[in-house]
Structure formats: structure tokens, C-alpha cells
């Protein structure tokens, strides 16, 4: 039911704001912009679905090869002690563990093209355990929130945008961004564990979280000692090598087991095509609502109101200039990217607002987009506490980004 109320809220608020602006100014351009946004957003949703069709077909085919060759099972066993505690409703050695592991690993390395198909595959496998097909299970909610928290260790695209906008050192947001996105994931994990009554102080959970914290810390220290050019080169090379390594290892392990790689790939690819087709109506619906909300100017009113409130307290208002990116990120990745670039162009790539906008962009993922795509792919309508926990993770990431920005950039 949550997506139903969210969709209605965005559409009605956008329509109301547009009507108020028209009656106050007599300018019909706002109403025209809102109507135009419905068509452009619907087109965008369909184009994204078409793009996903090719990507899903490729990666779900490769996932089937990985399963047949035993690679996915090996990864699943590596992470299964943690996942058994975070996903108590999923049986041991279930196929969902491998898909979830691959998805989270791909997200951490910034491999978006590989992460989405694996995530959709995991959601479909978790749905096979769902006794109420239209209602999200605890496991599906945990998995979705881990995705919406957007944990990424290699933010290549953000550094590239900073370079295009003239930043003196595009990689200067690298360490602050890792800290921000890590806090987002931590907040999301804690929120879901509390709601689902999962023991946070379990020694296995503490060991994995502590180990990941140590890895992030070492990575931050090592990268902090490297020149900017080396960071960008390492990020691109590492991502590409890992992606190629996954593909080659899947094929080689399947060949060792004498699997017919081509036929196995085709069978998995067929699932990818069907999944992509099923996503289209859900994706178009959420993008149209978000597009109307943005075109109406409701987001601008919200930012201006917050600026006035912060000014009344006498606090520093510099962070408000970057808030459009934060507010848009849960709604639209491309919209948030536009606000990030706009902040760097208006205030300067090396300004406080420009850098903070980059942290907002990388701290979390597009919560409502992921909700629409992941839950829509399996027909879930009752999202239960997924939206609240996902947005709480977003809030944790945004607060961390502001604190970290003041700490690093003054």
C-alpha cells in the first residue's frame, strides 16, 4: 500500500502546486510543464526498460552459467554465515544467497550494469519463498534496503563529473563519500534489524560489520596517499578487471563441469527478457509521479522554506544550496545528477555546496526507483516497512554527508 499512497501524494501535490501558481500569477506555463513532464517521464521510463532488457538478458544468462558451474554457490557459502542471520526466513544454501551476494558486491564496486540484473534475480528467488505474493517478506525488505542505502567503494562517475565541471582535484570527495555511504548502509541495516527483531549484537554480524569497517578504513587510508590521477586509473581498471574476471570465471568453471555454456546462457537470458517486460508499467508509473512533482516547483518551495528556517536559527545556510540533490536522490537518479551538476556550475565545483552535492549524490541510491523496479518485477504491492527504512537510510546518509562535508571542507 505504501507505493499507492506515495504515488497519489506526488501526483496530487504537483497538481495542487501547479494550480496555485497559475491562479496567483496567471501564467499557464507551470501547468504546461507539469503536463509535458508526464509524457517525457513516460518516455524515459520506457527507454530505461528497453535498456534494461539488454542488460538483464546478458547478466541473467551469465548468472545461469555461474550457477551451473558452481561459482555462485561458492560465493554464497562465503557470505552465508552473515546472510543466515540477516535473512532468517531464507533456507540455508538457497539460490537467493548467491544472487544477493553478487548484487551487493557489484554495487560496492560501482558495477551498476551488473548489479541490477543480479538484484532482480535475487528478488525473484526470494519471491519463491513468499506465501503472500503481493506482500513483501522480511527478507525482501532487508535486501531492498541494503540496495537503497547505496554502499559504494569506487565512485568513478562522480569524480568524472567533478573533472568535467572544472574541479582542481576531482578525487577530493572520495574519502568523505565513502564515509557518508557507509553510514547510510549502517543506518538502513540497523533500522531493518530493529523492526524485524534481528539480533544486532550477534558475534557473526559484529565480525562481518567490523571486518567491512576495517576494509573501508584501510582502503580510505591507502587511497588517501595516492595522487588524483592514480585514483581514477585504479578505479576504472579495478572495476573493469573484476567485471571481466566474473564473466571468465563463470565460463571456465562451467566448462570444467562440462556444462553446455551457450544453451545454459540462452535459458537464463530468456528470464531476463520476461523480467524486463514486466517492469515497464511500474517504472513508468513512478517516474511520471516524480516528474510531475519536480516540474510543479514543489521541490523548490521546500528548499526555500528550509533556507528561511535555518536562517532564523542563525546557523550556517551553505548546506541548503546542495539540498535539491539530497531531496531528489530518493526520487530520481538522473534528476539528482542534474542538481549536482547545477550546484557545481552555479557555486563552483570546489565550493562547499558543489562538494556537498557530490556527497549527497553518492551517499545513497534512488529509493523509489529501486522500490518500483525490484518490487514491481515480482508484483509486490504491499511494501510494509521498506519505504520507511529505506528513507531512514537515506536520511542517515544525508546527515552524515553534511557532517563530513563540514569536517573535511570547513
Would you give an account of this structure?
With 410 residues, this protein is mainly α. 79% of the residues lie in helices and 0% in strands. It is built from 17 helices and no strands. The protein has helices at 2-25, 29-69, 71-86, 95-108, 112-127, 138-148, 156-164, 174-196, 203-224, 228-256, 261-295, 298-313, 323-328, 333-347, 352-363, 367-376, 386-409. Helix 2 (29-69) packs across helix 10, helix 4 packs antiparallel against helix 5 and helix 11 crosses helix 16 (367-376). It is globular, with a radius of gyration of 22 Å.
Question: Uncertain regions: pLDDT < 50 for 5+ in a row?
Answer: none
**Principal-axis shape:** globular
What is the N-to-C order of secondary-structure elements (H for helix, E for strand)? HHHHHHHHHHHHHHHHH
The largest sheet, given as strand count, sense and whether it forms a barrel, is:
none
Number of helices: 17
Per DSSP, what share of the residues sits in E-state strands of 2 or more residues? Answer: under 5%
Structural class call reads mainly alpha
Percent helix range: over 70%
> Please, what is the average pLDDT?
83
Distance between the termini: 43 Å
Number of strands: 0
Radius of gyration: 22 Å
Which features characterize this protein?
single chain; globular; mainly alpha; 410 residues; 79% helix
Produce a short descriptive summary.
With 410 residues, the protein is an all-alpha fold.
List the helices and strands and how they pair.
Blueprint: H1 2-25, H2 29-69, H3 71-86, H4 95-108, H5 112-127, H6 138-148, H7 156-164, H8 174-196, H9 203-224, H10 228-256, H11 261-295, H12 298-313, H13 323-328, H14 333-347, H15 352-363, H16 367-376, H17 386-409
Helix pairs in contact: 1-2, 1-11, 2-5, 2-10, 2-11, 3-4, 4-5, 5-6, 6-8, 6-16, 6-17, 8-9, 8-15, 8-17, 11-16, 14-15, 15-17
